[in-house]
């Protein structure tokens, strides 16, 4: 055999590997034969022996018990795999498809539900989640109260106010029948909306009076300070949906004619009632009597309707009903008399009644 | 070392396995599990991961037994399968193993002196020198040394594993061996010098000067 490119390559040769393995047992003659056959020196063989034995890997063998354990586990896994056959794959694929669609849909759904949660609620006055509280004042009493946001309301006699037990969402909705004086806590982000009669008032923080008794033909709003905008579902003001009331102004909105009138009168005239002062400025006798009836909790019957439209100017502070009627009678031709209070079956007395009639003189 | 009958034995076992003989499946598993494990752990030193990969190879062998080809060398077939499985699963499980991956790959096919048998023909010092030389080879060269001297695969089988031509495989092997042979040659020359110095220290010092 010819000498190889490099002697080291000999160790990849199966027959030479055999020679190396048996080398130590060889006779000197056999060794000499090999030297000449492979054209090797004793030194070359020495190196090859070291290389060959140096590359003898220690055989690695797991203990039999571990091999059995792993084999058992493999068979178990195989059986498990069989129980979930490949027919399941289409279902799995279907599920994956479904999961993908669900993942795409989840964001729009979240956005939609949050929208519903935060914006839709405010479009209906009584919030779905919160309870509506109604406060009514009887004739003869004025109620001072505080709304859930801290705003103060002075509720005139014979009026009622409804509001949610807590304000949430983007507006503070309040429903008013009758008359009330508001001192609204400032909150630019959450305006208060007062619905009175057929009018909505948008308020950001201010003091104002609303007069919206059902028997009055107009809703009167008096702005003391701040800013209030008035709107009505059917009304338009100079082409705009909202009318901004200026401080010191009183605005009367007539729902029948959908007309709005600005009354440049002293705000005191409209807000005095909250301090127990009765102020009449060019009011008809009928209106005056209604206010007296409310304030003093008496029934007043006007027997002669000719008197109803008589205009009156007056201011009363601590006077009682008798004194007021006496003073009014001085300038107006009417007389008044009491009905004796009737005793009811339960032992209480009925509301006293006053009759107003034309003065015979 | 290799028994001549081994390949033919394996071929019979394989043939019966294909026909659905569970007993033959078990025998092949018992026979090669340790060897495959050792190889696997050298590719990627994560014991449980390697075990699962080997199990997966055997599971697939059984599941697809009807369509399996008759193989010339069962061991070589299994080694290729395990190698491929480890590389594929390693890529898949990157998130699960990623802490180990970066480091583990750097340890592929490095050997320890205890992994080689002790023989009279080679000194402990030389064994250590040879080991250092092996570990200084490239990763593919180290793997090839193992496949050739431990698993006793042939050049065509090794070429198949590395997906290179047979001459290329042979060439790579030769370069590794030449490097190792040179290391041994140099080392023995040095030891001879050292021996000389030990025996005649006075002479050697003068000579050196």
Give a brief description.
Chain A is α+β, with helices and mostly antiparallel strands. Chain A has eight helices and 18 strands. In chain A, strands 1, 2, 3, 4, 5, 6, 7, 8, 9, 10, 11, 12 and 13 form a 13-stranded mixed sheet that branches.
Question: Overview of this structure, please?
Answer:
The complex is a heterodimer of chains A (361) and B (209). Chain A is an alpha+beta fold and 361 residues long. In chain A, 32% of the residues lie in helices and 28% in strands. Chain A contains eight helices and 18 strands. Chain A is rod-shaped, with a radius of gyration of 51 Å. In chain B, 76% of the residues lie in helices and 0% in strands. Chain B contains ten helices and no strands. The longest helix of chain B is centred in the C-terminal third of the chain and has 34 residues, at 166-199. Chain B is elongated and about 75 Å long. The model of chain B is unreliable at 204-209 (pLDDT under 50). Classes of the chains: A alpha+beta (361), B mainly alpha (209). The interface between A and B is large, with 34 and 41 residues.
SSE order and pairing:
The complex is a heterodimer of chains A (361) and B (209).
Chain A: H1 14-22, H2 28-38, H3 42-54, H4 64-83, H5 88-123, E1 132-136, E2 143-146, E3 152-155, E4 160-164, E5 172-183, E6 192-196, E7 199-203, E8 207-212, E9 218-225, E10 228-231, E11 242-245, E12 250-254, E13 259-263, H6 267-271, E14 278-284, H7 285-296, E15 299-302, E16 311-316, H8 321-331, E17 334-339, E18 353-358
Parallel strand pairs in A: 5-6, 15-18
Antiparallel strand pairs in A: 1-4, 2-3, 3-5, 4-5, 5-8, 6-7, 7-10, 8-9, 9-12, 10-11, 12-13, 14-16, 17-18
Chain B: H1 5-18, H2 22-43, H3 47-63, H4 74-92, H5 94-106, H6 124-135, H7 139-149, H8 155-162, H9 166-199, H10 201-208
Helix pairs in contact in B: 1-2, 2-3, 2-4, 3-4, 4-5, 6-9, 8-9, 9-10
